[in-house]
Design brief:
With 181 residues, this protein is α+β, with helices and mostly antiparallel strands. Among the domains are: 41-90 and 138-160, SH3 type barrels; 91-136. It has three helices and six strands; from the N terminus they run αβββββααβ. Strands 4-3-2-1-5-6 form a six-stranded antiparallel sheet.
């Protein structure tokens, strides 16, 4: 019983999310993301411990331009305001892996004596692989790979910076396609 309880706790720990999450179809599958014109989803924890979450519109000079995911208003953050930034590159197959692991765990009910071993193997492997997939789809700043916010510009809607003639009041949320092609 203790092993089962520990396995369930470990499985649930791997089911993390951001606040707020992007809408269901906002993120593209990784193979299609190179054709997508939307910016990546970012969660920013600011120096004053407040949060900003939404689409990364641009990185220009010393500022981040983020279209808030709830209010759909453009937030402009100076680099000095950013404590931690977490960027989601694309859809993670982690939930699919976890669902498969759950189905595999249910399939072990007929294993009799070996149930604790095979059930724990399914739960542990599903949690581990799901967590690995989840971490591969996130970019964190600051990190060894990304020590400068300008390194994240390729994930913005306007990766070359904001166009000079762009009216910032007219930046709207991206239309979310029903199908990819």
């Amino acid at each position: 019983m203790r092993i089962l309880l520990i396995s369930i706790v470990l499985f649930l720990i791997g089911c993390g999310s951001t606040l707020p999450n992007p809408s269901e179809n906002f993120l593209m599958d990784n193979e299609y993301s190179i054709f997508d014109t939307r910016g990546a989803w970012v969660d920013v924890k600011k120096i004053d411990d407040s949060f900003e979450a939404g689409e990364l519109i641009a990185i220009k000079n010393d500022s981040l331009y983020i279209l808030n995911g709830i209010t759909h208003r453009l937030a402009i953050l100076h680099y000095s305001q950013v404590r931690v930034l977490k960027l989601r590159k694309g859809k993670s197959p982690a939930n699919l892996v976890r669902k498969h692991a759950t189905a595999g765990t249910v399939s072990t009910l007929g294993h009799g004596f070996f149930l604790p071993f095979s059930g724990c193997a399914w739960i542990g492997t599903g949690w581990l692989v799901g967590s690995i997939y989840d971490k591969l789809n996130y970019v964190k700043y600051p990190s060894r790979k990304y020590s400068n916010l300008n390194d994240l510009a390729s994930y913005a809607r306007f990766s070359g910076g904001l166009p000079d003639d762009l009216n910032l009041d007219r930046v709207k949320k991206a239309n979310i396609p029903k199908t990819i092609f």
